[in-house]
Write a structure and sequence with these properties.
This protein is 22% helix and 35% strand. The protein has 219 residues and is α+β, with helices and mostly antiparallel strands. The chain has two domains: 16-171, Pnp Oxidase, Chain A, CATH 2.30.110.10; 189-219, no CATH class. Strands 1, 2, 3, 4, 5, 6, 7, 8 and 9 form a nine-stranded antiparallel beta sheet that branches.
């Protein structure tokens, strides 16, 4: 299985038993999400913002307005990092310091470039839309040329990455296991509720099959 090589920037030091460097496993974490936390520096201040993304191979796509401060800062710096995290359970232990969470977290590092060509922009936005909901792109109107020109699209080439996964139960001190205190997991998941049609929708427009399939899969 292909792995990202370890270096100072992506090596996991604390909790090495939870470290993951396999490309396929990291991609699985990325594909299970739609929002990543992007870090950048603006006028000497460190800022981290949630951003929707799309993934295609080792490329991550972000988009915004042509004046988007974050995207412009990333392009100026030439490098970026993004973290995607899924919270899977609360781990409730017998002592406060052994409380934890089960999670899947991936952090990416790479170089960025501005996508200029309209065909490349449209392909990147298609990737973004399919990350949000598979099949959605084919259910919407075509992108207008002026919309593409107003949109800044940034591509991140993933150069290295690492992930951490915790998927185990409570880990208390041995002397605490006989205490009369409940301990265990509270599993968590993000779910989709039934689709709600727009109040301005024309009459007799049914909910598309790709929306219903998404709902059934994530309810």
């Amino acid at each position: 299985m292909k792995k990202y090589s370890k270096s100072k920037i992506n090596r996991i030091k604390r909790g090495q038993n939870r470290a993951v460097y396999e490309v396929e496993k990291i991609n699985t974490i990325l594909d299970a999400g739609f929002i990543g936390f992007v870090s950048y520096t603006y006028e000497g201040s460190a800022i981290s913002l949630p951003m929707a993304y799309g993934r295609n191979g080792n490329k991550i796509y972000l988009h915004g307005s042509q004046a988007n401060r974050m995207l412009l800062s990333l392009l100026e710096g030439g490098k970026m990092s993004m973290t995607v995290m899924h919270l899977d359970a609360l781990v409730l232990a017998r002592s406060g310091l052994h409380h934890s969470v089960n999670y899947r977290s991936a952090t990416l590092f790479g170089s960025v470039r501005k996508i200029e060509k309209a065909t490349e922009k449209e392909a990147a936005l298609h990737c973004f839309m399919e990350q949000m909901m598979k099949g959605r792109w084919d259910g919407i109107r075509p992108m207008k040329p002026e919309e593409l020109s107003r949109t800044l699209v940034v591509e991140m080439a993933i150069e290295t990455a690492s992930a951490k996964i915790r998927d185990v139960g409570v880990n208390d001190d041995s002397e605490d296991y006989n205490l009369p205190i409940w301990a265990g997991l509270v599993p968590l998941k993000q779910v989709a509720l039934a689709p709600i049609s727009d109040e301005n929708l024309r009459e007799n427009i049914p909910i598309p099959s790709h929306v219903l399939e998404y709902y059934k899969l994530h309810q």
